[in-house]
# Entry
Amino acid sequence: MKKIVLLRHGESLWNMENRFTGWTDVDLTAKGEAEAYTAGEQLLADFHFDKAYTSYLKRAVRTLNCVLDRLDQEWIPVEKSWRLNEKHYGQLQGLNKSETAQKYGEEQVLIWRRSYDIAPAPLGEDDPRNPRFDIRYRDVPAAELPRTESLKDTVKRILPYWNDVIFPSLKHHDQLLVVAHGNSLRGIIKHLKHIPDDEIVEVADEAAVTEPVTEDTSKTEAEQNVTPQPQPAPAVSRAITVVVNKTPVTLTGKQSYTFVDILDVYPFDLSSMRGKRLVTNVNGIHAEFIQPIDEGAVIDIYWEN
# Structure
């Protein structure tokens, strides 16, 4: 059984002070360190991780270190990426949340914190907090470094790393640990659970206690680029919408279809399925494509309820 554990970092100094943190690199409090060890305790009986992933920010790195210490798995490979960093809060970073709410109103602060597509005011290009001045991001193109972000921007930043690095590693590993941040993990969960944009505001961006969330990926063989076990073609009872050249095209039965410049495929990666019959189980009628397919590729798609 393939599993990925998603874990938010423990309480940080600015969590304790009720400040917007974002990309500011603050450490854990003693409570946050204890939370991390508690999370490791919860994972002790059932998990022996093959690899771990975390952000460039100290509070996530330290949480991961504490968890692995408790598990006695400090030797496993760890990969860090700036793409797993917290949502960038722009000019709000460092401000006290309660004081900001008094100044701008609680509703506005809630929008900045929890809305999907509204970002706070950006940092100026000469602001010393601008990540382009931080040595840890020296290999990241300046244009890709955020000066502020909405959750939508955060998801856009994270998903290439999730789709191209973390999830494909399940081909070689059974258990993965991802230690990151409230909003970066919200983005991953939104993607995995197909949470609509207008409902993601109801998913808390900061857990009161650091607790592991386990995603069982054993039923998504096609997404792992693992050839599905042979099974009979199901009765067609649903349509599936495919994005081709940014134009929605609806397939309403068993068809052979020539795809030209596929943008994205979810939850299956057709780039490894060229010429093969792909049996899928689609809940709903919309599918997106994540990786491009060669122009002219012909795929037979079957689906069922």
